[in-house]
Amino acid sequence: MAQSTVSTMLHRLETRHRITVSRIAVIGLVASMPGHFSVEDVLAQSRGIGRATVFRTLKLLVDEGLICRVLLEDGRLHYRVSHDTHHHHLVCKECGAVEDFTTCDLEGLIAGLSVRTGFDITSHWLEFYGLCRTCRETVPASRNAILTPS
Ligand SMILES: [Zn+2]
Ligand SMILES: [Zn+2]
Ligand SMILES: [Zn+2]
Question: Which of 14, 79, 132, 146 gives 92 a disulfide partner, CB atoms 3.0 to 4.6 angstroms apart?
Fold first, then answer.
C-alpha cells in the first residue's frame, strides 16, 4: 500500500519536476505516515534531509494535489494523502479520524455571497468536526451527556 503510494506520487511528479534522492525520501516518509501527520512528524524521521527540502517537498505535493491540508479543530495544520479532486473533511474530535467527502454543494451559497459582497470568490476551505460513527457508539454516555445536555 505505502509502496504503491510512493510509485503513484513519483509517477505524477516526474513528468514536470526533478526527482531528487531527498524528494524520494520525503515522499517515502509521507507515504508511511498513518492517517494525517504534521510537518514535525516528517521532520522527526527525516534525518539527513534538510528542513527546507522537507517543507518544499510537502508544498510541491500539496500543489500537485497528492496530499492535502487538514485543519484540526485546535488549530493545528496537518497533511494527509489526498483525493486529488476538490473535497472537504469530516474530522472526529475523539479519535482524530478524517474522512473525505467530494460532494461539495456550495455553488449556490458562493454565487449568492459573490452578488451580495462584490467579492470574486476563487476558492474556499471547509472542515466539519464531530464524532465519527465508531466514536458515537463508544464514547461513554457520561461524556455524551456533556456534549448534549438534556
Ligand atoms: Zn483531504
Ligand atoms: Zn472517532
Ligand atoms: Zn467545496
Answer: 132
Compute the Cα dihedral for 66, 77, 36, 128 and give only its sign. negative
State the cell numbers at 25: 525520501
User: Which residues place a Cβ less than 5 A from the ion ligand 1?
Assistant: 68, 82
Q: Minimal CA–CA distance to 69: which of 58, 55, 53, 57?
A: 58
Q: Which ligand is nearest to the CA of 86?
A: 3
Question: What is the tens place of the pLDDT at every residue in 15-53?
Answer: 899 899 999 999 999 999 988 999 999 999 998 899 999
Q: Which of 14, 46, 19, 17 is nearest to 30 (CA)?
A: 46
Q: CB within 5 A of ion ligand 2: which residues?
A: 92, 94-95, 97, 132, 135
Sign for the pseudo-dihedral over CA of 68, 134, 92, 101: positive
In this structure, which long-range contacts are made by residues 86-90, counting pairs with CB atoms below 8 Å and at least 24 apart in sequence?
A: 88/126, 88/127, 88/128, 89/127, 89/128, 90/127, 90/128, 90/130, 90/132
How far, in Å, from the CA of 98 to the mean position of ligand 2? Answer: 8
C-alpha 25 to ligand 2 mean position (Å): 31
